[in-house]
Write a structure and sequence with these properties.
The structure holds three protein chains of three kinds.
Chain A lengths: L8 E3 L16 E8 L7 H9 L1 H7 L4 E6 L6 E6 L4 E5 L5 H13 L7 E3 L32 H4 L8 H24 L1
Helix pairs in contact in A: 1-3
Chain B lengths: L2 H10 L4 E5 L5 H13 L15 E5 L10 H4 L1 E5 L6 E5 H7 L3 H10 L5 H6 L2 E3 L7 H4 L2 E4 L15 H5 L15
Parallel strand pairs in B: 1-2, 1-6, 2-5
Antiparallel strand pairs in B: 3-4
Chain C lengths: L4 H7 L5 H11 L6 H4 L1 H39 L5 H10 L6 H10 L1 H18 L8 H5 L3 H5 L2
Helix pairs in contact in C: 2-4, 4-6, 5-7, 6-7
Classes of the chains: A alpha/beta, B alpha/beta, C mainly alpha.
Amino acid sequence: MSNSHLFLKSGFPRAPLQNGVGRYICQLQRITLKFCKNNGSSRGMREFIEKQLIDFAKENPGTVVYVKPRRHRTPVIVAEYLNGDREWHNCRNLSKEEITQWITLMKTQNGSSSSLRLRKMWHTDMPSIQGPWTPFTLKNPASNLVIFPNEELSKPLDVEKSATEKLIELFREQRLSEGKLEENRGN
Amino acid sequence: MSILKRTQQWATFARTWHIYDCTWQNPFDSAKVVKNHLMGLHKPIYHPMNDCGDHVVLINTGEIALPGDEWIKRVYFHHTGYPGGASWTLAWQLHEKDPTMVMKKAVYAAMKGNLQRRHTMQRLHLFPDDKVPEEILGNVTSQIKQTRVVPKRLDHIDKETLENFPAIMDYPKDYVLR
Amino acid sequence: MVFTSAALFVRARGPDEFWRKRRVFKLAAHFHGRPRNVYTFAVRAVHRALVYATKGRKLKKLDMAELWKTRVSASAEQYGVSFDAFKNSLLKSNILLNKKMLADLAIWEPRSFEALAQLSRERAVVEGMPGIQERSVMNQVYGLKNLLKK
């Protein structure tokens, strides 16, 4: 069981300065390839340098490429990003293709992705179209003019009619019908 | 954070001041309603760890109506902490000493006992009558509906209505009216 | 002749003491004080932490469900509909949104939620469900109807 994420920085996926909207700036600023000229563990790296590095450098004028030979040590890629991140990657015994894949990844990401724990797998600048709920969303503007405490607003809804009210209603109906009867007699 | 987002944040988490009239209300039923507003349980954004509770102003707490014979049966316990420091006070006695206390304790008891409860209670403002200081009343923008209708007292009904009230039955001739 | 190999075999735990302890210390890296540095404390604390984590996996789901329920019922109450009536009438109208989505709608898209609330009210009235307050609640709410009016 691994707890390697315990002290990782956490964050959300984001594009710095709306990168990619309108213009794109490669976030990889500097890349250093360290390798040994003799050792077998650097074979893939040497192959990469011989066959692909020139093309890579030509295709990415925004990225500075350093090549640093050193004796009898593991090949390593160090990538430095525009946001200040420095990513160190061990390339011991990696083949040319694997190294190409790693470098493509570094070229396309905007920071060291392995040192960031993503809290969410998505991001939006516009979480709400209708506007988030506020206490004022459903408030009638007319309520600005009300003077508190207000007796009308205080009354509960859904009140059943009391016996008194029912009685008065019955009484009124009775009187109405009596009145009509009398009118009919008069006619 | 842009200005627009910032104002959106202020608007969503804005505190509202509610007023609640305790006249003739059962304090224990009212406490459930008041509690919801105090804790922010009436908002869709509620979360126990976000501070979204509102202020509630309770007026006329002196006019509350306890159900049944609770005025003489309900007992409030207090202990000073010293030996022999226990005391039991009947509800009517407590109400005589402080007319806001029964309502306050009802709201306090309606909430779950946690660290937040005493801070939430700070947002409750109680007044024994309808005399509320201007600076508090000025904040109020909403009224909470009462839990029951306030009945009209017989001596508050005008004479004309009383006289015109329909007679349900006629008294028997030998009925003695005193 | 004494046979000790069986007893020793039972006592022999793991390949190497250092790596066995390291496995525990890795899980205790974020603890405070002795549970972080002393193996006997660390192993107990890690054991307890793992038990909490196991229980927490279940509790987290229950807690979230409870929170969503509180939020949805609060938002439905704004329109005078109880939570049960709201959920049941949505179900009868064949709207199968879960509590999480309803809570999200209530917060982020309040007007869509209002449409759902209106729909559920109509449905609940037709079905004669309890838990519906008077229609006057809807009139007090400053809803879509007022917004669309010119």
